[in-house]
Specification:
NADH Oxidase, 249 residues, alpha+beta, 10 helices, globular
Length: 249
């Protein structure tokens, strides 16, 4: 138990890896750990693609804009996947199922299932003293990733995860205060309290950015999110998701 808590509390994103591939046993263990995550209604509504082709890694790195998507020990891509659920159904039942799967509820189910599986995989990798980094930037051109991975209808690439032997030891980034994210019995809708927590967190994060050993800068949490959310980003994802059969009603 203590070891597992140490793994959880020491998490940090690793973006530099040694040139050493994972063994088949390590890959198997990570994927098996992912499969043991909780899943809604036992759907197991996700698929995982291991990218071993170096040219494919290079193309995905170009989409993400992150060099470590190409240079790592192993790259996983986690997909929402409802396709297998209706494959064994007869034509009449399949039509009903495919219609029902188009609602937002099932899009949420598949996305959450994939995220839970991924976090299990991340914890398994880190427990083996490997480093990981989630890659949401694959959605910079989600249609191209879909094409490269040859994904059928009802299968959507959500994010990647690089895994490997760390070649740096970055400082751990602070998290929001627990008071800002954990409430009991009802949501704590008090702007004054939240603003006070955010002000204190801004100070902590600014000190972290200024003192860290790599890419130090002057920045705060609220400035960071305001910059990001003041500009449109990945506006094509909504239509792409609908074209794949999801989130249509």
């Amino acid at each position: 138990m203590e070891h597992m808590l140490d793994v959880l509390f020491n998490h940090r994103s690793i973006r530099k890896y040694k040139e050493k591939p994972l063994t088949e046993e390590q890959i198997h263990t990570i994927v098996e750990a992912a499969q043991h995550a909780s899943t809604s209604s036992y759907y197991q509504a996700y698929s995982i693609i291991g990218v071993t082709d170096q040219q494919l890694k290079k193309e995905l790195a170009g989409i993400s804009g992150q060099s470590y998507v190409e240079h790592n020990s192993h790259l996983f891509v986690f997909c929402a996947d409802l396709r297998r659920l209706f494959l064994k159904a007869n034509e009449k039942t399949r039509e009903k199922m495919m219609e029902n799967l188009q609602n937002t509820e099932h899009f949420i189910v598949a996305t959450v299932d994939a995220a839970l599986a991924a976090q299990n995989a991340a914890i398994a990798a880190e427990s083996m003293e490997l480093g990981i980094c989630y890659i949401g930037s694959l959605r910079n051109n989600i249609a191209k990733v879909d094409e490269l991975l040859e994904l059928p209808e009802f299968v959507i690439p959500l994010f990647g995860m690089t895994v490997g032997y760390p070649d740096h030891n970055p400082e751990q980034k602070p998290r929001l205060p627990m008071k800002a994210i954990y409430f009991e019995n009802k949501y704590e809708d008090n702007d004054a309290i939240l603003e006070a927590e955010l002000n204190e967190f801004n100070k902590r994060l600014e000190a972290y950015y200024q003192s860290r050993s790599e890419n130090n800068r002057s920045d705060t949490f609220t400035d960071q999110v305001q910059r990001k959310l003041s500009n449109p980003i990945r506006m094509d994802v909504t239509n792409f998701v609908k074209k794949k059969g999801y989130n249509q009603k």
